[in-house]
Amino acid sequence: EVQLVETGGGLVQPGRSLKLSCVASGFTFNNYWMSWTRQAPGKGLEWVASITNSGGSTYYPDSVKGRFTISRDNAQNTLYLQMNSLRSEDTATYYCTRGGMDAWGQGASVTVSS
Amino acid sequence: DIVMTQGALPNPVPSGESASITCQSSKSLLHSNGKTYLNWYLQRPGQSPQLLIYWMSTRASGVSDRFSGSGSGTDFTLKISSVEAEDVGVYYCQQFLEYPLTFGSGTKLEIK
Hints:
Chain A has no helices and eleven strands. With about 110 residues, chain A is mainly β. In chain A, the strands form two sheets. In chain A, strands 2, 4, 5, 6, 9, 10 and 11 form a seven-stranded mixed beta sheet that branches. In chain A, strands 1-3-8-7 form a four-stranded antiparallel beta sheet, with no helix packed on it. Chain A is globular and about 40 Å long.
């Protein structure tokens, strides 16, 4: 069974940093691109970052480019999202997704507030 | 950026009736390889989204054949035949032709 389990969410002050992790199981992790997608409270879905299966290339929307960094450790079957210079508008549930978003984790809640 | 625009449903939809959700993209999602780079997702209340349809018309593993996707390069439809209580939630279309990946704003389905 494919499983994606996110951890690392929480309450953080504006301007601070937070790092999310996603542990994958039930599939060959290094065969798949991976992504993060977020959902602000009561809002729709927003793609945040993607990384190739080797980790050699990464992609971001302008809203997080330069502040967020996606990375992966294929030996540990783990995906990461380093979030710096956090803003109130980054408050959301962050989902780890596999490949063409055919599998989603349960989400990690991030609240940016003073 | 490619803008995805979704239509609304005349909620609530009577149980057993069919429902069609529309999605329009600001740019053709038809690639030169013949594939259309459009996904559909369902997010049930309190749950994570799940993939329903990929490549515009291919059902994801385990998805009921009551769900079908169709369309052209810019206009798409998700049809749910004979809606059931478990179909309640918000449906999203998404393009994956180019970055940034973009989603529609969502279409809520309620059942009567």
